[in-house]
Design brief:
Strand content: 15-25%
Shape: globular
Distance between the termini: 49 Å
Helix content: 25-40%
Number of helices: 6
Number of strands: 10
Radius of gyration: 16 Å
Largest sheet: 10 strands, mixed
Strand order of the largest sheet: 1-8-2-3-7-4-6-5-9-10
Order of helices and strands: EHEEHEHHEEHEHEEE
Length: 207
């Protein structure tokens, strides 16, 4: 059975934040709220965690995983960002955007797209997630919690606990969560391509 942790959305309790971080470090799989729906999360080095995410969502190896980063400097360690992308991404973050960019050598190969050698990255605008990332000291391997046959991310922690009680190790609740997913921008080539229109305004990437 999954542990259920209810963490204050405005003042995340350090003791509970530490419990989630220790779960990640212990190679556990978490379901946690973000600024655009719930996500599944695991530590970067957790090989089994990656496979469990794919199994829960019924996805294949071509799925684009996302690295949830605490800030722009951390993001820059894991992806190559040219000058044009640098300015636009810096202006748009933190916020509900996922950017697909060429991965650096810091990204384990199993987390890259097998052909494109790219990975998704994002910087959330969410107090709890920022607290987790600050304490963890590295990105969280993340995938939006959209279950097979569904089109929107989950938003209710107690429902996730009921449906995924034996599939994840920790479910985190932390205030209201919007169902609208991130906007996805593929910047693996010279010009940005809007892959998905979501919560973030994409007009700045279509000029």
């Amino acid at each position: 059975m999954a542990r259920y942790l209810d963490i204050h959305p405005d003042n995340p309790q350090p003791r509970l934040v530490s419990q989630v971080v220790e779960a990640l470090r212990g190679d556990q799989l978490i379901a946690y709220p973000t600024d655009s729906g719930y996500a599944l999360g695991a530590q970067l080095g957790n090989r089994e965690g990656r496979d469990r995410i794919l199994k829960i969502r019924e996805l294949d190896d071509r799925h684009h995983f996302t690295l949830m980063c605490k800030d722009f400097s951390q993001l820059g360690q894991f992806v190559h960002v040219d000058n044009n992308a640098f300015r636009a991404i810096k202006a748009a973050t933190p916020g509900p955007y996922t950017f697909i960019l060429p991965a650096t050598g810091e990204v384990p190969k199993r987390l890259m797209h097998p052909k494109k050698r790219t990975v998704g990255v994002r910087i959330p605008d969410h107090l709890l997630v920022c607290a987790l990332l600050e304490q963890l000291g590295e990105p969280i391997l993340t995938s939006t919690l959209i279950l097979p046959g569904e089109t929107e991310a989950r938003t209710m922690g107690w429902e996730i606990k009921e449906d995924l009680d034996h599939a994840v190790d920790v479910v985190v609740e932390s205030g209201e969560v919007t169902a609208e997913p991130t906007s996805v921008i593929d910047w693996s080539d010279a010009e940005p391509v809007v892959v998905r229109r979501g919560a973030g305004d994409v007009s700045r990437f279509e000029e």
